[in-house]
Design brief:
Length: about 300
């Protein structure tokens, strides 16, 4: 059928009601958001953002309400979608923005694709990877993997992807979203090593929309975390309190979930796998720790400083 591109949509969307089908690849995926309130009677008040791209650039796509439980888990990073009967809206200005792996990619930030059950009822098709043709010109998923030795030189809030061998994982902890609210964030601390430094990655991993993976972070698994943000505490010794925290678009993967993921082609991921082959499993097992209370960033050594 006659296709359109994201670039053409941006130029012509005001003058049309019906749009030609779109062929796009998912590059980023946000966590699922629940926006239900007691006074509003919505059956499935869910929303999820995706960043999708074709040869002309990248645009946000929003999945609404009952389409979320139906499609959210199937739309992975790297998935190719054929979209028909979608709506175009001006984009929501306050949403988070992932850092694209390809800094040259054009971003269409004024509008977003809206996928609904009605007005109009969107038709979504997933194109299997083996049927994707090179002439469609869809971009590949690109990453920004860093090694542990590179981390100390990165600025606060820098976005990156990491892979490492888990040596410590803490218990799940809760933090209030707002001071007197009843909602909590669930998170856990983990350490992962990649052989490039004596220090591990210190990772603050919030439960994203992947509970199956979050609960299976164990010592000795290969952990991949994407779209992590660098956090530096400059008040104390800056090198001792650098850690990474998840963002709204972070995806986590552990051993058993890596097969077929786009990052398996990345050079730094391949280098890490080569390094793990040189390690003795028994030696690493002796250094692993699980559970317990993990105060971080650590309090000062004496009460006067505290």
């Amino acid at each position: 059928s006659k296709l359109t591109s994201l670039g053409q949509l941006e130029m012509t969307w005001r003058s049309r009601v019906h749009f030609h089908p779109l062929l796009v690849r998912v590059l980023h995926k946000s966590r699922l958001r629940y926006y239900g309130k007691p006074e509003k009677k919505l059956d499935m008040p869910y929303q999820a953002y995706f960043e999708v791209a074709d040869g002309s650039g990248m645009m946000s796509m929003v999945l609404w309400n009952s389409l979320c439980p139906e499609w959210y888990n199937s739309m992975k990073v790297g998935t190719v979608l054929l979209l028909e009967q979608y709506a175009i809206k001006t984009s929501y200005p306050f949403k988070t923005q992932p850092t694209p792996g390809d800094s040259q990619m054009k971003r269409f930030a004024t509008i977003e694709i809206s996928l609904n059950v009605r007005d109009p009822p969107t038709k979504i098709s997933i194109i299997p990877e083996e049927m994707v043709k090179p002439e469609w010109g869809l971009p590949e998923v690109k990453y920004r993997f860093i090694t542990r030795s590179e981390l100390d030189g990165l600025p606060n809030n820098h976005s990156c992807d990491v892979i490492g061998l888990v040596t410590f994982v803490g218990r799940a902890e809760r933090a209030r979203k707002r001071e007197h609210g009843e909602d909590f964030w669930l998170y856990r601390w983990a350490h992962a090593i990649d052989g490039t430094s004596d220090q591990p990655f210190i990772l603050e991993i919030f439960a994203t929309s992947q509970p199956d993976v979050f609960e299976h972070i164990h010592p000795m698994t290969y952990l991949v975390c994407t779209q992590m943000r660098v956090v530096r505490d400059f008040t104390e010794n800056p090198s001792s309190t650098i850690y990474l925290t998840t963002s709204n678009e972070s995806q986590i993967f552990v051993t058993g979930w890596h097969k077929g993921q786009p990052y398996t082609k990345d050079t730094k991921v391949k280098n890490f796998i080569q390094w793990t082959k040189t390690q003795s499993e028994a030696d690493q097992m002796k250094k692993t720790v699980i559970g317990g209370y993990y105060p971080f960033p650590r309090p000062p050594n004496n009460f006067l400083k505290y």
